[in-house]
Amino acid sequence: MNATPQWLSPAEQDAWRSFIRLHQKLTATLVRDLQANCKVSGADFEILVALTDTPDGRQRFQDLAKSIDWEQSRLSHQIARMCKRGLVAREECAEDGRGAFVVLTAAGRDTIESAAPHHVATVRRLVIDPLGPDDLATLGRISSRILTQLDNG
C-alpha cells in the first residue's frame, strides 16, 4: 500500500461529497416517504422487491442476503420482524436441512403491490423527471461502471 495518500483534488472532493450527499439524502427521503405514505419500512420494501423478482416469490435465505447485499444476521432479524407481521414466511428446505427459504405471503404481496406505484411515482418525481434522456443514460453508465468496480473488488 502506498504510504502517501493521493488526496482528492478540489474538483474530485466536490464531486465525491456531492455524490455522498445525494445518496444519503435520496435514500433518507425515499425511506421516509415509504414509511409515511405506505406504512412500510425501507428494509421491508427492499426485501419484498427482491422476493417479487422471483416467479414464485421465494428465495433461499443466503441468496436473498446476497441479492440485497446484507449480512446474514441483519437479514435474519429483519425476516423475523416481517414474519411477525405476516409479510413473509420462513420455510425449511426439504433438500438441505440447514437451508431455509424466505417466502412472500399474500399480505406481503398486497403490501408491495400497494406501495410500489407510490414509490415509483416518487422515484420518477425526484430522479427520473429532472433528468433528460441523455443525463439518464449517463447516470446509468456511471452507475454501471462503479458497480462493476465494486463487484470486482
- What is the class in the CATH system? Mainly Alpha
- Please give the radius of gyration in angstroms: 19 Å
Question: How much helix, percentage-wise, in residues?
Answer: 55-70%
Mean pLDDT: 94
Strand order of the largest sheet: 1-3-2
Can you walk me through this structure?
There is one protein chain. The protein has 153 residues and is mostly helical. It has one domain: Arc Repressor Mutant, subunit A. The protein is 67% helix and 8% strand. It contains 6 helices and 3 strands. Strands 1-3-2 form a 3-stranded antiparallel beta sheet. A hairpin with a 7-residue loop joins strand 2 and strand 3. Helix 1 crosses helix 5. The longest helix has 29 residues. The protein is globular and about 55 Å long. The relative contact order is 0.11.
Descriptors:
single chain; mainly alpha; Arc Repressor Mutant, subunit A; three-stranded antiparallel sheet; 6 helices; globular; MarR/SlyA-like; WH-like_DNA-bd_sf
Please summarize what this structure is.
It comes from Phytohabitans aurantiacus. The chain has 153 residues and is mainly alpha-helical.
Question: Any chance you could write out the topology, listing elements then pairs?
Answer:
Blueprint: H1 10-38, H2 42-52, E1 58-60, H3 61-68, H4 72-84, E2 88-92, E3 100-104, H5 106-128, H6 133-151
Antiparallel strand pairs: 1-3, 2-3
Helix pairs in contact: 1-5, 2-5
